[in-house]
């Protein structure tokens, strides 16, 4: 291995360590308390070392969010592959999405609630974001009927995000989560006008 390759590998390892430490710190103190100074103290790197890899906190949050979209894509794929029918796939995707958001609260916050420059739904969207969207689309495609699959997926995504956001803010009754998910799935299996499923 050349000196250049070794240096690149070390830089990539350092970058991964910074991302991992940011996630860990956010989980313990919350994103509002994560600063580059606090992060550099946490991992015992100087701030200039952090700035060699990231422009600032927003850039670190962006990297964490991208990791999160990759993890969510993997979870959605696993849920989809384990289901046999369109209804099972749809239900598995809905459950997977809400469970992912519940188990990974600070990660989900970085993905959807904190300010980043991530482009959603565009040709220059990052690969992990596209992969996550495509996995969700694959899970709900059979349910879309004659509707545009991408728009349908966006509506499903927005609906699930709404449920997650209202639940985590304590605006919905915690004891009715299962019932809400069941209704969410059921409403998408009601026949639509011009739907060949009748």
Q: What does the model show?
A:
It is globular, with a radius of gyration of 20 Å. It is built from nine helices and no strands. Helix content is 70%, strand content 0%. It has 198 residues and is an all-alpha fold. The mean pLDDT is 93. α1 crosses α4, α4 runs parallel beside α7 and α5 packs antiparallel against α9. This is TetR family transcriptional regulator. GO terms for molecular function: DNA-binding transcription factor activity; transcription cis-regulatory region binding. Pfam families: TetR_C_33, TetR_N. Keywords: DNA-binding, Transcription, Transcription regulation.
Identify the notable features of this structure and list them briefly:
single chain, 198 residues, mainly alpha, Arc Repressor Mutant, subunit A, Tetracycline Repressor, domain 2, 9 helices
Concise account of the structure shown:
The protein has 198 residues and is an all-alpha fold. It contains nine helices and no strands.
Secondary structure layout:
Layout: H1 3-29, H2 36-43, H3 47-53, H4 57-81, H5 86-103, H6 105-112, H7 127-140, H8 149-168, H9 177-187
Helix pairs in contact: 1-4, 4-5, 4-6, 4-7, 5-8, 5-9, 7-8
């Amino acid at each position: 291995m050349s000196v250049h390759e070794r240096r690149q590998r070390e830089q990539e390892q350092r970058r991964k360590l910074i991302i991992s430490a940011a996630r860990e710190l956010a989980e313990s103190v919350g994103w509002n308390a994560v600063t580059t100074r606090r992060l550099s103290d946490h991992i015992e790197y100087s701030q200039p070392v952090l700035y060699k890899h990231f422009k600032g906190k927003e850039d670190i949050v962006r990297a964490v969010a991208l990791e999160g979209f990759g993890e969510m894509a993997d979870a959605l794929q696993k849920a989809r592959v384990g289901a046999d029918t369109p209804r099972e796939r749809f239900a598995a995707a809905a459950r997977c999405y809400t469970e992912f958001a519940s188990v990974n609260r600070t990660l989900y916050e970085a993905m959807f609630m904190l300010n980043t420059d991530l482009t959603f739904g565009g040709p220059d969207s990052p690969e992990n974001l596209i992969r996550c969207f495509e996995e969700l689309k694959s899970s709900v495609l059979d349910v879309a009927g004659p509707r545009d699959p991408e728009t349908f997926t966006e509506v499903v995504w927005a609906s699930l995000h709404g449920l997650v956001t209202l639940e985590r803010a304590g605006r919905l009754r915690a004891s009715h989560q299962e019932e809400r998910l069941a209704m969410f799935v059921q409403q998408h299996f009601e026949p639509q006008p011009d739907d060949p499923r009748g």
